[in-house]
Amino acid sequence: MGRSTVCFYSAKPANSFTKQRWVELVSRHYTGDWSRFAADFLPPAGVASWEALLATTERTRMRPGGAGINVVREWTGIVADHYYTLAERAIRAADPDALYFGDRLPIYYDPAAVRAMAPHVDAIAANYNVDSGDGWIADYFFDGLRRLSGGKPVLISEWFFAACENRTGNRNNGHLMTVATQNERGIGAAAATLNFAAIPEIVGAHWFQYYDHPKGGRPDGEDYDFGLVDINDRPYQRLTSDPRDRQPTRSPGSLRRGDFDGAFSAVKDYRAAACSHFRRRSFARRLAQAVQPAAAARALAGCSRVR
Prior knowledge:
The strands form 3 sheets. The protein has a 3-stranded parallel beta sheet with strand order 3-4-7, sandwiched between helices. The chain has a two-stranded antiparallel ribbon with strand order 1-2. Strands 5-6 form a two-stranded parallel sheet. It has 3 domains: 2-75, no CATH class; 128-268, no CATH class; 269-307, no CATH class. The protein contains 13 helices and 7 strands. It has 307 residues and is mainly alpha-helical. The longest helix has 26 residues, at 69-94.
């Protein structure tokens, strides 16, 4: 995010308010010393002053081996804070009880942007691509969010498992998580679910997607067995059977038929998250009901004094 926004706004005309703020920032960062700026950045040919930097509409780029990343991080924080402030203001004005999750973070995230986002959102939405067939989850990904946000709740807004063995005929034509069989898919997804549930900040996870991709793939070419059901609405039983004897301490290799579907609800009590992180009763109600019906009563009972 940061480097691209620096390059983008550096090429704006001088009457751009954001371009003016950017030139002010870099001038202040380098205490007005152009030579220090030029040691970290590559301004366009012929640009050798702050005035010329403001006037040019050609891009300024980072100099390899320089320390321009420090300016990029500062600029990213400013832009992100302004964006999330405006977004929060608009959302609260339209619906004071709406849940604000910010953007869906990809499998990577900009630390400066997350720091800026955290004060404004109710929870952080993040897509997470499981990249190990045994359902291993990278704790460092969530450790980073925890430290950057001060322990904000996290909603997994997209995750998935695909298998070469599928009824739709999906080719699984890319780098996304794919195993050989539906049996392996069910086991891996179950293990990943339990691993998600063991991370205190995670308050829910959204499976992508209900149906497999259509035969031949989407218009953009993506063609995966992501569905809980195939394109004829037939469930993948290994993935969706209803479990009744959830054992969170079991190893992934010991998981059996039906170990996926109810793994969220049997592992966690969401009362603490709903009460400590959120101060509106309507939020606690929506969160608890979205995660699991059984937790709704516990969350609301414990938050009866929350307003």
